[in-house]
Amino acid sequence: MTNATDLTVAEIRDGFRDGEFTAREIAEEFVAAVEAGRALNTFIVETPEHALAAADAADQERESGAVRPLSGVPLGIKDLFCTEGVQTTAASHILEGFVPTYESTITERLFLAGAGMLGKLNMDQFAMGSSNETSYFGNVLSPWRRNDGGNAALAPGGSSGGSSAAIAARMVPAATGTDTGGSIRQPAAFTGICGIKPTYGRCSRWGVVAFASSLDQAGPMARDVRDCAILLEAMSGFDRKDATSLDVPVPAWEAALNGSLKGKTIGIPKEYRVDNMPAEIDALWERGIALVKDAGAEVVEVSLPHTHYALPTYYIIAPAEASSNLARYDGVRYGLRDLPEGANLQDMYAATRADGFGPEVKRRIMIGTYVLSAGFYDAYYTKAQKVRALIARDFEQAFETVDLLLTPTAPSAAFALGEKSDDPLAMYLNDVFTVPASLAGLPAMSVPAGLDAQGLPLGLQIIGKPLDEQGVLDAGLAIEQRAGFTARPDPWW
Amino acid sequence: MSVDATIVRKIASLARIAASEEEVAALVPELNNILGWVEQLGEVDTDGIEPMTAVIPNTLRLREDKITDGDIRDKVLANAPQAEHGFFTVPKVIE
């Protein structure tokens, strides 16, 4: 057997079915890789017992001839998903020690499909960040390093930075992520892996710690497009416990995967050619255009006139929803309580929240509280909701003439830890290419397509029409098959 | 629009987040920087545009008015920082 940790989800699933190895063997290899990779700080909690128990169950079931869709596959779970009996913190001090008494719909589906859990993955606190530097449990280190001989610690992206780093370091074959403004796609791009955010409503938000409910969507992150299709199928589906869950059938995305783009028209949104775009990103984009043409697609330029306003719109709507969602952390029902001597109830709330939330979370709650406050609500929040409608309309109009859109995923390769953490706005600008699709609720994925001059991965983003995950995955596959991206970080940890 | 220390203290109080004078002083320029940046939305003509409320068209479902959950008091209380006699407890609120 090749190194088990080099196997994809599909290879594990199929090899297990064919009797090439036991689920136990696979799980043990990954458990060992998780232990060996502790220097990267990708996990907040390791759960080898969960992965091994699922593996043993899979082995027993196979004996009796029963195999489930993900039997034998161990996964990493972002710490935003509530897991019954396993601490779930959203990487915040305020939830430290919180052990859910229920299972999120997504993890329940994955476990019922036979998957095991290797542990809970580190992330930006409450999914607020683009570098994984806002976690209460410390920075995640990217397994990648620049080829300049320096050992600068690089960001794995965020907020799903534990997920991206653990996959790139081959500590897990795949992981769950969540994406509010780019938190699956940007970390995938930074670490040379794939990740898809499905149409808003495809994946149940039930049991996922809420950040900005009109934007939050779960999705899979993995090393290739096929694995994303496999996992997305297992994660998607109607759930009556989520009022925004879409009651539509889940297509067999994996079975229908097709890397030919004949007959497809792919739009290149001209407004994504932002000022100061690094030449390498521009070159990557040109390469992507050549790759999809080679796959048979016709490529045309399109206009999304309100693109420039997507980020400021997002940074009103997301904090507004966050300030409301995070009001629940009050020191009464779960999580941290800070009760200073002689304090009354109001003092207790304020002390608990001051102690429990990190600086970026507080900043966003404050912005959200301000834009929702009496006298400012219309000027900020209602205005942003109107611009959001215009951004969504831009996409609708573009999709009258094209099937998909192709853009870079992020405006740069991974930056060094500390490089942007002192300037919230500089950090926000990282999401310039991912936020518009989030505001419009569209499916979008990142696939690795090349390396920059420093040897760091760069990703291309494909954005599709609502519910056209198949089109997005197919275009991702077309790029994957032609880009020949095989680079991986040298293990130094 | 911009904020000063008085407004920041008020926002912190509305958000129930205790903030020291140093924190307030640091937040004033930070929040002004962000608010100044989002104000570029003022350039966008939104006359006659309905604010978006649902990103993907969806209908609100109705179900039978029947209890589908509950009777899990101990589970609900399991993570409480302090619980007594089957209730959440908080500092005294009535003298």
Automatic annotation (TrEMBL), chain A:
Key word Ligase present: yes
Domain Amidase: 26-473
Residues at the catalytic site: 78 (charge relay system), 159 (charge relay system), 183 (acyl-ester intermediate)
Superkingdom assignment: Bacteria
Pfam families given in the database record: Amidase (PF01425)
SUPFAM superfamilies: Amidase signature (AS) enzymes (SSF75304)
Entry's Gene Ontology molecular function annotations: asparaginyl-tRNA synthase (glutamine-hydrolyzing) activity; glutaminyl-tRNA synthase (glutamine-hydrolyzing) activity
Protein name, per record: Glutamyl-tRNA(Gln) amidotransferase subunit A
Entry annotated with the keyword DNA-binding: no
Function of the molecule: Allows the formation of correctly charged Gln-tRNA(Gln) through the transamidation of misacylated Glu-tRNA(Gln) in organisms which lack glutaminyl-tRNA synthetase. The reaction takes place in the presence of glutamine and ATP through an activated gamma-phospho-Glu-tRNA(Gln).
Organism whose genome encodes this protein: Sphingomonas vulcanisoli
Similarity comment text for this entry: Belongs to the amidase family. GatA subfamily.
Catalytic activity: L-glutamyl-tRNA(Gln) + L-glutamine + ATP + H2O = L-glutaminyl-tRNA(Gln) + L-glutamate + ADP + phosphate + H(+)
Complexes and interactors: Heterotrimer of A, B and C subunits.
Coiled coil location: none
EC number(s) from the headed UniProt entry: 6.3.5.7
UniProt KW keywords: ATP-binding, Ligase, Nucleotide-binding, Protein biosynthesis
PANTHER family in UniProt: GLUTAMYL-TRNA(GLN) AMIDOTRANSFERASE SUBUNIT A, TRANSAMIDASE
TrEMBL record, chain B:
GO molecular function: asparaginyl-tRNA synthase (glutamine-hydrolyzing) activity; glutaminyl-tRNA synthase (glutamine-hydrolyzing) activity
Catalysis: reaction(s): L-aspartyl-tRNA(Asn) + L-glutamine + ATP + H2O = L-asparaginyl-tRNA(Asn) + L-glutamate + ADP + phosphate + 2 H(+); L-glutamyl-tRNA(Gln) + L-glutamine + ATP + H2O = L-glutaminyl-tRNA(Gln) + L-glutamate + ADP + phosphate + H(+)
Keywords tagged on the record: ATP-binding, Ligase, Nucleotide-binding, Protein biosynthesis
InterPro entries: Asp/Glu-ADT_sf_sub_c (IPR036113), GatC (IPR003837)
Keyword Nucleotide-binding assigned: yes
Superkingdom per UniProt: Bacteria
EC number of this enzyme: 6.3.5.-
Keyword Isomerase carried by entry: no
Family, similarity comment: Belongs to the GatC family.
Cited function: Allows the formation of correctly charged Asn-tRNA(Asn) or Gln-tRNA(Gln) through the transamidation of misacylated Asp-tRNA(Asn) or Glu-tRNA(Gln) in organisms which lack either or both of asparaginyl-tRNA or glutaminyl-tRNA synthetases. The reaction takes place in the presence of glutamine and ATP through an activated phospho-Asp-tRNA(Asn) or phospho-Glu-tRNA(Gln).
Subunit structure: Heterotrimer of A, B and C subunits.
Protein name: Aspartyl/glutamyl-tRNA(Asn/Gln) amidotransferase subunit C
Taxon lineage: Bacteria, Pseudomonadati, Pseudomonadota, Alphaproteobacteria, Sphingomonadales
Gene: gatC
